[in-house]
Every structure is written in C-alpha cells, then in structure tokens.
Amino acid sequence: MSCGDHHDTDCSQVLAAVYSFLDGEISDGDRHVIRVHLDECSPCLRQFGIEQEVKALVARCCGSDRAPDTLRIKIMTRIQQVRVEIAQVEYRVD
C-alpha cells in the first residue's frame, strides 16, 4: 500500500510493523519512526486504527492481549489478502 506521497519510511513497511508496534515489540527508535509516519500519513493512520480495533476485539473475545496462534495466523493471512485486493483495486484506478 502506498498513499502516493513521499515519506521517509514506506507505507508498506509501516503497515507490516503495525502489530509489533501495537504489542510494544519494537525498539524505541522504530516506534518513533512509525509514529512520525502515522502522524503525516492519513491512509496508514486509518489502517492502523482498524488493526488497533481488531487487536482490541481479539483481546475482549479471548480474554488476553494475545490471540491464540491459530487465530492470529488466520487473521494475519486475511489482512494480507485484503491488502493485496486493495492494492490491485488502487492499481487499476490509477
């Protein structure tokens, strides 16, 4: 995914690291880079918000901060499929 604007960090790199960001599994430096990108890129911020909500929903449903590995794999696979579908639609529109 790309919003079409130039950023120091590519949108696809930011979105690939969203769950690590949400889980606090990245360095402070990487956290800062992602935060700066999200502050200036509304499409990524919107996607970040969706993934943040998914994480919160899983936490509520599963009773913990971490989903079972099988569910996590299914969700991550589906999110990647949707990203590919969105990229294909965006490519055809442009």
What are the key terms here?
mainly alpha, single chain, Arc Repressor Mutant, subunit A, globular, 74% helix, 94 residues
Q: What class, by secondary structure content?
A: mainly alpha
Q: How far do the termini sit from each other?
A: 13 Å
- CATH-derived architecture: Orthogonal Bundle
Low-pLDDT segments, ≥5 res? none
SSE ordering: HHHHH
Beta-strand content bin: under 5%
Helix percent reads: over 70%
Shape assignment: globular
Structural Rg: 14 Å
Count of strand segments: 0
- What is the number of independent domains? 1
The CATH topology annotation reads as Arc Repressor Mutant, subunit A
The overall average pLDDT, rounded, is: 80
Major β-sheet annotation: none
CATH class assignment: Mainly Alpha
Q: How many distinct helices? A: 5
Secondary structure: elements and pairs:
Layout: H1 11-16, H2 18-22, H3 28-40, H4 42-62, H5 69-93
Commentary on this structure:
- It is globular and about 40 Å long.
- It has a single domain (11-93), classed as Arc Repressor Mutant, subunit A.
- The chain is built from five helices and no strands.
- With 94 residues, it is an all-alpha fold.
- The mean pLDDT is 80.
- The chain has helices at residues 11-16, 18-22, 28-40, 42-62, 69-93.
- 74% of the residues lie in helices and 0% in strands.
